[in-house]
Amino acid sequence: MQAVILAGGRGTRLGEISSIKPKPMVEIGGKPIIWHIMKLYAFYGVKEFIICAGYLGYEIKDYFTNYLLKTSDIDINFQSNSINYMSKEKKLDWSIKIIDTGEKTLTAGRLKKIKKYLHNDNPFFMTYGDGLADVNIKKQLKFHQVSKKLVTMTAVYPPPRFGSIVLEKNLITKFSEKNVGDEGRINGGFFVCEKKCLDFVTRDEPWEGTPLIKISELKELMAFEHNGFWQPMDTMRERDYLDMLWRDKKAPWKVWN
Description:
There is one protein chain. The chain is α/β, with parallel strands linked by helices. A seven-stranded mixed β-sheet has the order 7-4-1-8-13-10-14, sandwiched between helices. Strands 2-3 form a two-stranded antiparallel ribbon. A two-stranded antiparallel sheet has the order 5-6. It is globular. It has helices at 33-43, 57-65, 67-71, 107-113, 137-147, 210-217, 236-247; strands at 2-7, 27-28, 31-32, 48-53, 72-77, 82-87, 95-100, 124-128, 131-133, 151-156, 164-168, 171-176, 186-193, 221-225, 230-232. It is built from seven helices and 15 strands.
């Protein structure tokens, strides 16, 4: 099966770093966040990727084109004009298509542009290149297949952002931390889709707009409830949090060895 990753975003809330690299190439533990996402899918046997590149898409192409050079020691023999890569990590058995879908194209428009690369007979996975989770991809696929609907979307609880204070006549008497689950579920960004769902994309538009609304109105949109770890990377604070989890060896999304 194939996994499509939307990777054309700029990530303006990440500050200066967004001027030199696209959001999916921002590093967590020394590896781009898109690499972590792909490792999750690969753990569940999904190793054929279509990356929808856009803003600074060359950076994504350069990273994977020169992946061995970036991750290996090398043995150069000028006499035989050869280079031997002495990889420090397990060899990847992935196939990757990196498609330029336009710098300013919206998410549904990007999906429409890669439609011709999708297999006809199988559903495909789709996610965004800026969030991490420990979603069980295998269980999600089975749930989707049993439902026989066009689209299955992960439904998650957002991480708590703000606590609250308790006031008594302007006197602060208590600080109350917000807990996961205090708010309703939201779109977690991990989808399983039938190719036919792209027929609902009629113009360059957000995937979460008209296409998903129409699909839900037809009762063809299912929610796969995920109660585990889920964390977007919209700000440098969130990037630093994910990086800390990785470096402290407490990254819940690292399900691979």
